[in-house]
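Supplementary Methods S3. Complex input for the adenosine monophosphate-bound model.
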Amino acid sequence: MATGGRGALSLLEYYGSDSDGDSGYTSEDEKKRKHEFSSPHERKRKRRRAEDEEEMLVDTPSSSCHAHHTRPTASSESVMGEGRQRLSDHTMDTTSNQLPRSRSIPLPGELLLTREDHVDDPRQHQGRIRSFPHERGNWASLLYVPLHLGVYGASFASFMASLVATCQEQNVVLTPSSDLHISLTRTLILHLHWIYPLTEDLRARVSQISKFSLWLHGLNIYVNDEGTRTFLGLRVCQGRSELEDIISEVDKCLAEYRLPPFYKDGSYHASIAWSTGDVSEDLRRLLPQLENICSQYFSVETDIRTFDVDYLHFKTGNRIHTIHLKPGN
Ligand code: AMP
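Predicted complex, serialized as structure tokens:
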């Protein structure tokens, strides 16, 4: 299949490992206040120092038992706050005449200054536009059902080529997705120290749900929240109630981290192609033709519509965690 974007999953690759978005946890007032009292140059240096300290905190054994393994409840936030306090206590010792008991070693200023700020260039990402600003220490994450085409990869590629050609005749540029998956969460922006506990919480809940099979049937059109991309998806026909059971458990987990739940209308699908911008109207006009190609293909390759769901993937940045479902009923 041709390479291309993959909906939410592609965002994770595009947004890469370490950063990846606006956590949304800093209030506008706080942002303004911080910006008012320092020059852009100072702000850049301060921000990088703070991030380095934060990353060091996470890596410090004394803080890891709190930071790595606790949910962001009021008490855990204060524990993390105490950790930060401890770091700055050490540097405060230098203002008195006493020798510091211990001190974190700051990165040389030159290194902090020469680290390049991340600048997005949609031309390098097939015209895709970032949905949230790049920010170090935040990780774009997604829970999904991976779908493997196996021996059907080649026939699926020619099916996609027919869809793309049909759209092209009407000047709609469609790019095939290179990975098929069914998203079970929105794209989540996680702090590094949430990844481990959240993965384990998800594993504990989801592993109680039995393996099942699902069946794809028919096409649908989706637009992302920002209206910057349109997706053509194969809808889940059978297996919806099992996906609902998983999502209900997952949403309970996400609520504990104050993360957003999945879409309420639960339109489960596997995106097979995408376009930049909101071209939903154009695609809707073409839908009868596209549906026709789709049913012809499925009438030949009858087995490709059925997928056994034995495990899920939780992708955080470029890292994939496998979460197995309960074997057999
Ligand atoms: P995905 O293929 O899972 O990456 O989804 C493609 C896009 O569909 C995402 O950017 C979602 O924001 C969007 N979308 C819009 N409405 C829905 C819905 N009801 N259920 C799932 N995804 C949706």
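Residues 71 and 245 are 23 Å apart (CA to CA). The pocket of adenosine monophosphate is lined by residues 7-8, 183, 222, 224-225, 231, 233, 263, 265, 267, 271 (CB under 6 Å).
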